[in-house]
Amino acid sequence: MIALIDCNNFYVSCERAFDPRLEGKPVGVLSNNDGCVVARSNELKALGVEMGAAMHLLPPFVRRQATLLSSNYALYGDMSRRIAEILTEFSPHVEVYSIDECFVGFQGFEPDSLEDRGQQLRATVRQWTGIPVSVGFAPTRVLAKVANHAAKKNTAFNGVCKLEADSPMTEGILKQLPVEELWGIARRTGERLKVMGIETAWQLREADPKQVRKRFSVVQERIVWELRGQTAIQLEDMSEPKKQIMVSRSFGRLTGSPHDLREALRQHASRAGEKLRKQGSVTSAVMVFVRTNPFREDLPQYRNRVVITLERPTDDSRELVAAAIQGLRRLWRKGYGYHKAGLMLLDLSPKANRQLTLMETLQTAEEEKRSERLMATMDKLNRELGKGTVQLGISKQGSAWSLRSERRTPRYTTQWNELVRVGCSI
After folding, report:
1. Per DSSP, which regions of 9-168 are E strands?
2. Residue 354, exposed/middle/buried by CB under 10 A (0-12, 13-18, 19+)?
3. Cα separation of 231 and 142, whole Å?
4. d(CA 399, CA 397)
5. How far apart are CA 355 and CA 349, in angstroms?
6. Rounded distance between C-alpha atoms, residue 211 and residue 218, angstroms
7. In the predicted model, what is the mean pLDDT of residues 12-39?
8. CB distance 236 to 220 below 8 Å
9. What is the pLDDT of residues 337-363, one digit of tens each?
10. DSSP codes joined into one string, 2-47
11. Between 216 and 132, where is the model more confident?
């Protein structure tokens, strides 16, 4: 069985973990440089605030009631790392899907024990970090996503839902789930499926896989098999536009050289930039991660991650490489044999619809055009002459990537001078 662990309202929950006064109140987290709302508490959603709403356009009655905070990616990234570490206490098979989601393998565990383990996992994460999570168990990743959705939306599950491939409960949930809410089904794909008479996840499960592949792609065919309980999808298969983009790869051999990690991350950042531009998005932050081989129990183990915020939303690979190298400088530790390194682009938004803010570090029109021409030329050469034909060199060291955020809370877990202070009087 596979479990999907999803942190509930993650950015808001991180803020509440260190400021309990925010519990039960409408809270929103703002995008880079406080432009628009990128995370909402349930109370803020109840006030009618949509995802992506511009802060300066929020109605006065909302602003009077709500607490609006700047993005604190250093805190969110560190809390994400801590949660992933906690998950390894329950299983060694942990796959990070996004900053607030992980797939965890529970192969070999007694099926009847999984729901109790899920409750124990939820209680442990909440006790050790203050973050509430939902848990969905299923034989495949797609069904685990469905189970997690049910665990989060239906209070009867108490935060943990287990779905079998062919159970009546699975059939009932899939019949109620709109097809476009499935993992890997984009809005336009959902519209095309509806034209074919496929409106629910159950109808997609019962469709002919070959016909689905013929009309769409191999990914949609694999979703059909996954809905039937047959494993067919890896994380890299889900290539539809996402809120995050991840690029990583295991090394051919273990290495303790920071030069090797730097070269790998430089390539990953360049590749992530290509994917970002291909789907017409920009990113506001980069999460960098490294790890040793968890299966080499004879060697010392180390895994860590860090989030680097950018001066402005960008799709320029040069800026992504610089952020990745900055992250590596903070992560690398001597004495370990590294097995994998990668990065994840966070807080993606459409480039065409991006609205500049007065607080943003701006490029001149000429700088922006030069950047677009350079990236377009690189993409064209690599597309036509082969991947890696044009590569970026080593980025300059010591670049300043400070973020101006008027409403940012302290980086409680990553900065000595911002630790929580406790006083008492006798």
Report:
1. 27-30, 37-40, 67-69, 94-98, 101-105, 133-138, 160-162
2. middle
3. 9
4. 6
5. 10
6. 10
7. 90
8. no
9. 999 999 999 988 888 765 555 545 556
10. EEEEEETTHHHHHHHHH-GGGTTS-EEEE-GGG-BEEEE-HHHHHT
11. 132
Residues 399/341, Cβ–Cβ less than 8 Å: no
Pairing of strands 281-292, 338-346: antiparallel
* Structure tokens given for 58: 């929020």
- The per-residue b/e assignment along 249-271, b for 16 or more CB within 10 angstroms, e otherwise, is eeeeeebeeeeebbebbbbbbbb
Euclidean distance between CA atoms 163 and 273, whole angstroms: 37
pLDDT at 373: 87
Q: How far apart are the first and last CA of the chain?
A: 54
Instruction: Give the H/E segment covering residue 143.
Output: helix 141-153
Q: Give residue 267's identity as a one-letter amino acid code.
A: Q
Rounded to an integer, what distance in angstroms lies between the CA atom of residue 313 and that of residue 315?
7
DSSP 92: S
Q: What is the DSSP letter of 295?
A: T
Q: What is the widest separation between alpha-carbon atoms in the chain? A: 76
The number of beta carbons lying within 10 Å of the beta carbon of residue 16 is: 20
337 neighbors 292 (Cβ within 8 angstroms): yes
Which residues 6+ apart lie within 8 Å of 239 measured at CB?
219
What one-character-per-residue DSSP string does 365-401 give? HHHHHHHHHHHHHHHHHHHHH-TTSS---PPPSS---
Q: Is the pTM of this model over 0.85?
A: no
138-to-1, 229, 276, 407 alpha-carbon distances in Å = 5, 8, 31, 40
CA separation for the pair 404, 4 (Å, rounded): 34
